[in-house]
Amino acid sequence: MRLTSVCSTAAAIGLMIGLCAASAGYRTVNLSLNAERITAIEGILLEDPRIITSGNAMATISLRRCAGEGGLRVSSKGEITVFFPAQSAEKLREFGRGASVFADGSFRLQKNLSNHPYSSDTGWTFSANSMHIVKPAPAIERMRTDIRLNLIKRFDGKNWGGLALAMLVGIKDNLDTNLTAMYRSAGLSYILALSGMHLAVLAALIAFLLKKPLGLKAAAITGAVFICLYCFIVGPMPSLNRAALMYLLGTAAVLGALPKKSMSILALSFLIQIVITPSSGYTISFILSYLAMLGILIISKALISLFTGKVPDFLLNPLAISCGAFFVTSGVCSYTFGYIAPAGIIAGLIIVPATTVFMTGSIIWLVLDTISLSGILNLPLSLLYKIMEKTAHFAGMVPGISGTRPFIILVFSLILSLFIVAFEYKQRKARLSLQPFN
Length: 438
Prior knowledge:
Oligomer: single chain
Structural class: alpha+beta
């Protein structure tokens, strides 16, 4: 009864927070003119422009003014997605986030899946014919953009460079579209999205380099500062922000400011992120990131407890983590993407450790490149890239499960998850009830 009351209270509070976040995250756009009359817009780039397949660039901007026929100019506000012509892509990338831009073109209406008028993701978007930089970004933003451009230049010409950029700083403009399709078909798209796995590699390197000379607490604080700088360079990504928040809260736990409980840290991270950026709650990366972490902390832990001693640890731990994340997110994935690929669980046994080695090798390559010794790693990184590519290719050939009935998949995954947790709880209780022999 006590557990039931706690769960009921948590569910009620969660529903209340969800309703508040939905209201706060409701982003409207005030154009001050009919969209059909607008011929130009002016605003500030809120993100780094992304190069899409056609060669055009797209970015979210914060509106400041709109212009209509006859020189009419009005103040506007809100966030919209703008598609820029290909000839403006390089200039946009050069000036980057924070720059003020003026673009002439027209609004167009897309299907609004969220039923939110003027949504930056699905409602009105602006198709630009030309673009002009009104004002450069602030100095700190220009420094950040220079770092990103330098990384793009250094990895340019490497067959594995696009993947390295995607995994280190989230830049996917140079990523091979065929590789992206392979990862998607194999159920491995999460590898290409910066999240806790990628941050864990960086955190492990920091701990390895700093823990011994500085000590645990000093290394944790230094790592927290590095993670904050890293997130600033990469830019806002819900899944990466979740991982960074958990790292910072974990640092606070190491310093004794918070209890060392993973579930509590996950819950507090969710609350902080949804309060600061409520609109991120609409993104699929935010939803999948927290669900996957929940599955790892609950389902994976139960699977490890059930099969410890029966399956070798080097297989059990990664398999349990993959299964836990897959079971909890399968319903959402089937509804969103219309397809789930269980083969990704097995393929992840190769791809995940290979990704860890690849990221570490790419970081070392960057260090060696400053002293012109990076050539010794070109062949190993290229071979590792081929291994990951072939693994994703073969995993993608395995038939997946159609998501035409996502509700059935959701119910089945929930029942299976509850069964695993209940069975592990029963087994653990039985073990604890055994009295030792005197």
